[in-house]
Every structure is written in structure tokens, then in C-alpha cells.
Amino acid sequence: MKGIFSGKILAISAMCIGSVLIRTGCSTADSKVIQYAGRVPVIEPDYREVVIPRNIAPMNFIISESEKSFTILINSSNGGSLKLKSRTGRVRIPQRSWKKLVAGDGRGSLAFEIQSAGKNRGIIKYKPFNIILATEPADPYLCYRTLYPGYETWGEMRIIQRSVSDFKEFSLMDNRALDGNCINCHSFIKNKPDLFLIHARGSKAGTYFSDNQKVTRMELKTREMPGNAVYPAWHPSGKYIAFSSNMIFSAIHMRPEQNIELYDRFAILVLYDIEKNEMSVCGNNYKGGSMETYPFWSPDGRFLYYCRADQMNPGFDYRQVRYDLVRMPFDMDTESFKEPEVILKAGEINKSVSLPSVSPDGRYLVFTLHDYGGFPAWHREADLHLLDLKTGEIARLSLNSNETESYHSWSSNGRWLVFSSKRDDGFTSRPYLAYFVNPDSIGKPFLLPQRDPLLYKRSGKSFNRPEFVTGRIKTGPGDFTRAAEKDPVKAVWKGVKK
Q1: Where is 7: in which H helix or E strand?
Q2: What is the pLDDT of residues 138-171, one digit of tens each?
Q3: CATH T-level topology, domain 141-493
Q4: Which residues contact 52 (CB under 8 A, 6 or more apart)?
Q5: Which residues, in sequence order, are CB contacts of 93 under 8 Å at separation 6+?
Q6: Max CA-CA distance within the chain?
Q7: Could you say which of 152, 350, 400, 467 has the lowest number of CB atoms within 10 Å?
Q8: Helix (H) or strand (E) holding 338
Q9: Are 465 and 186 in contact (CB under 8 A)?
Q10: Rounded Cα gap, residues 257 and 243, in angstroms
Q11: Where in the chain is the domain with CATH 2.60.40?
Q12: What angle do CA 460, 150, 369 make, to 5 degrees?
């Protein structure tokens, strides 16, 4: 057997006082020997001692021990209990039973007691472990993109909305209905389903806007822009969307830890006025004196945060490109920007910032920090860091692993972070959630549960750009397919918005 009990179970005599083995009952064929493992069981995903919202789906898992037949007892702090048996090590908790276990208000917990089923080889009893129930719920839905990892082709690709409280999935967009073209960058305004957008490339290219009733295909790139409008950031008023207009290139090499690098040759920030259908440059960088990317608005709409690096000349070494964290004041009355300020000079410590994301209360900013460049998904050293916008303190978050942490987003109440991590196999991105109170109080991250706990390994797909959503999205693949058959509505170039 696995672990410290890898040999045969020792026989017990009546004189073995102090042994870890206990014989129960009489000396008959029905007698069973209990062996105390002295440790908690190994389970996958690792849900031991995690903090979860009460509205999460059942935390199904695999018991990764040499024995395959187990009894599982779950005791809730609300007084409920559930006993399960598994002959394969796969633990799937019924939805109704789970809802009773997690019901209640305030902070609570679930205690898991696991032991092997016994029979001929006796019983192995493991130390119990807990799952902590938080007071605050998570938003009821997650939205993410699924695709097979790689860089030669994107193949099958879908934008999916997944219910947090159960395992229901709703397909929002499927690239097979759009001639197999790439789809990406789904984005919402303040986590709401009422208005969102998705980009598509290729023969059905465009930015597809959904108002939760119909879908409209737009062409936001004008001839004055260096590239398409990507990396959207909705202004909280709903009147504007900030984009980065990038010329993106790739480099492929043979380093096993990092075999692809994406990099910008040119990037500026642009602002789309939804009501006027006008596109303009943000600030004074209309001649491309620097590369600007990854915009994100403060919750009050008064600041636009983004990443900025020096403009590179032809023949530059992309390993020398490093982005600082910058913010630019925005006057909503005059619809104009003021001079930007650098709030983190990452280049001075030979690091690069990407993907800034401000908490709903405006207090904290999470960003990804890596060695160079602006595309952290293929950087193993990429970690999530937290900037306290009130004190200026910066800290590496405790939820990081030895593998890539990249895209992240906040729940609408600011108590939950969801982020993409490659910690499981170093190759595929998967959605992890973590409870957040402050930099000193962050829960152990946990993998989004699935009905089949082996789903992630079986599918082999990456789950990237996870976003919390507060409600169900009603539009679906058919709406996007119909919109793709119509000519796109073209945005008008306004000019420079200083």
C-alpha cells in the first residue's frame, strides 16, 4: 500500500499495547483491524482546508490512495451529515445532499472523515480534514474560453458560461459556427450579463456585441489604427470601452520551459464611444512613443490603468521589453485624459507587469509579474501580485504556485478571485478560485469543481480568461452565427482625445 504503510498489515497480539493497530470485536472471521494512517488522505483536486462559498457546486474528488474502496463521512457545522461509499476512489456528492450540508449563514465548516472499506486487509483510517464555508457568496456564473493548448492551430474553441452552484454549462459562442476562426477576449461591464462583447478573427472577423437580446457585429479597427482593438475594458458608465490596438508577433524556440513568446511591435490605447460609434486615441501617445496595453478602469471611472513600455526599434530583443504599471486620469465631464503617472516601475527591478485588475471597492489592484514581455501565459515564473492603492504596498500573493499564474478577475463583491493557473501539469490552464479579505487573509486556492473530478485530465483542454458573471446570459451560438452573416457596422475615426 502507498505511503508509510506500504508493507503487510502487522498481526496484533493481546500484549501489543501502544500499537497503532486495534482489533475490534471478537476473534472471528468478521473481525476487522483498524490501522490509523496518521495523516490526511491524498485527494485530487486538493480540496483539503480550502475556503469555499456556500453557493459552490459539490466538491467532487478522487482519493489517490492504493486502496480503492472507501467510506466517506461528511459532517457539517450546521448539524447535517452524509455518508458515502466509493469502490473506485471517485467521490461524487449528490447535489441535493450537498446543498443541505452547505446551507446556513455565517462562517461554517465541513469535516471529512475517510477510511478504506476494510474486508480482508482491514481498515485504514485517515486523519480528517476540513473545508471552510465563507460568509460571502461568489457570483453565480463563470465565463471562460476552452481550447486545446498549443500555438500551431486553435482548433475547437468555445466561450462557455458555467453555473457556479451546479455543473450546468451554456455555450455562448462556438468557433465551429464561425468557419473555425479564433474567438477571444469576452468582456463584461461590472460582471453583468446585460452587455458584453467577444472578438472573432478570420473570415467572420469583428467585435460582437450582445445586449442579452440580440448580437451586433462591429468593425472597430479603422485605417488609422495599427492593429485590431483588443483587450477591452468597459468604463463603469457603460458609455466607453478602452482597447489596446496592437501589432502582435510571435517567436517559437526550443526551450522546454517556454517554447513560444508573443510580443508587441506597436501598441496604443484607443477609446470607443459606444453612443457615437467613434474611435479615438487615449492621451498623447498617438505617434506611438511608447507601447501601451491591457487597459483597466478604476470602479469610479476616474482612472485608466494600463501597462507601458518603451517603443522598441526594429531588431530589438524582446527579452529586454519590460512594462511598467501606469494610470491616466480621465475627466468624465470633458471626456478627456490628463497626464499619466507611473505607479510601479517594474523595469527597475528587471520585471514586467501585465493584466492589471482593480477590486470593486477600488482599494486593491492585482497584476501579473514576470521576467519580461507582455504575454505571461507562457512564462512559468509569472505570479500574481497585489498593490494596495491606499498604502502603496506591494506583495506577492500566497496563492501562487511554481507554474504559470496569468489571467485573473474579481467577483462583484470583491471577496473572490478567479485566475488561470498551470499548476497541475505545467501546460494547461485551469480556473482556480480563492477567498480574499485582505493581503494577510487569503484562502487556499481551489480548482473549480466538476461533476466528474477526472474531467480536466480527460479533456486535455485549457480554461482561460475566467470571468465572474452575476446572471445568466441569454444569447447563444445561433445569435452570433446570424450576426456573422451580416456586414459589420464600421466605427468612425474621431482622432486624438487628449
Answers
A1: none
A2: 999 999 999 988 654 557 899 999 999 999 999 9
A3: Neuraminidase (2.120.10)
A4: 59, 131, 132, 133, 134, 433, 435, 446
A5: 58, 59, 60, 74, 82, 84
A6: 91
A7: 152
A8: none
A9: yes
A10: 31
A11: 39-133
A12: 100
What pLDDT digit, counting tens, does each position of 335-359 carry?
Answer: 899 999 999 999 899 999 999 999 9
For cell 479533456, what's the residue?
Answer: 459
Half-sphere exposure of 134 (CA within 13 A, CB side): 22
- The fold adopted by the segment(s) 39-133 is Immunoglobulin-like (2.60.40)
Amino acid of residue 370 = H
Each residue of 128-140: pLDDT tens digit? 999 999 999 999 9
Query: Residue 180 carries which side chain, given as an amino acid letter?
Result: G
Picking from 366, 410, 364, the residue whose alpha carbon sits closest to that of residue 391 is 364
CATH 2.120.10.30 domain extents, the chain: 141-493
Strand partners, 32: 24
Q: Which residue type does 1 have? A: M
Residue count (the chain): 498
Q: Which residues pair with 218 in a beta bridge?
A: 207, 489
Are 274 and 240 in contact, with CB atoms under 8 Å apart?
yes
- Amino acid at site 391: T
Secondary structure element (H or E) that encloses residue 480, with its range: helix 477-484
Cα 475 versus chain centre, distance: 23
C-alpha cell at 254: 526550443
Segment 382-387 shows an average pLDDT of 98
